[in-house]
Amino acid sequence: MSAAESLADRAAASPILTVQGVSKKFGGVTAVQDVSLEVPRGAIVSVIGPNGAGKTSLLNMVSGFYRPDTGVIALEGDAITTLRPSQIAARGIARTFQNIALFSGLTVLDNLMLGRHVHMRAGVLSSALYWGPARKEEIAHRERCEEIIEFLKLQDLRKQQTGALSYGLRKRVELGRALALEPKVLLLDEPMGGMNQDEKEDMARHVLDVNIERGVTVVLIEHDMGVVMDISDRVFVLDRGRRIGGGTPEEVQRTPAVIQAYLGTSKGGGQT
Predict the structure, then answer these.
(1) Which one in 117, 127, 218, 232 has a CA-CA gap of 20 to 30 Å to 41?
(2) SS3 call for 11
(3) Residue 250 maps to which CATH number?
């Protein structure tokens, strides 16, 4: 997909991910209630809402960490509702987490290599002895990881332990590890949370590059409304577990229920 294609063109593409009537309860608390949405192929879709609106629970169901009580989730028309997280990752859905989930004692390269696990095919014996197919496979996987490191401008840090990196760089490494799965759909849970303004701008550029240059569909949870409205093709709004709005950024900003529940009276955005 070329950078010349407009946001409207990408937003009008056929859906790659479909969520239909999904609900999830934890005891007597309803986290998500009868939520439906479609994610167009090649788009950047943001899911917004106040704290406790059910955003992360929704992503957890899409990625298989939670199983919905009701409803169907489909990737490219095939139901993935009952699959395990590893099976969903193998189908082409990768995610990052609100709290960074890297191995701090490993290098940047090693963390990205771990992201290749769903593509590794060598047997246990050949891997242990590091010969034949296992050696060829590791070289190929390492080359893919090096390409991602270059793409995210992490070349000088490839041998650094991730625990020694700044917060913003660790977030970028986590993005790289998700990209190492070669996803069709990338789920980002507050990728800019806790960052300063410069770090947010860098991450926003990387998200756009992932979408435009690598053709990856992105589903984004983010509280910074300036970022959401600048980079999203579609925005869906949750409040108390229910979907209360959806459409282009411009349409969402004009929806009375959204203004009342989340955006307030300000025009420009900001953070919650």
Answers:
(1) 117
(2) helix
(3) 3.40.50.300
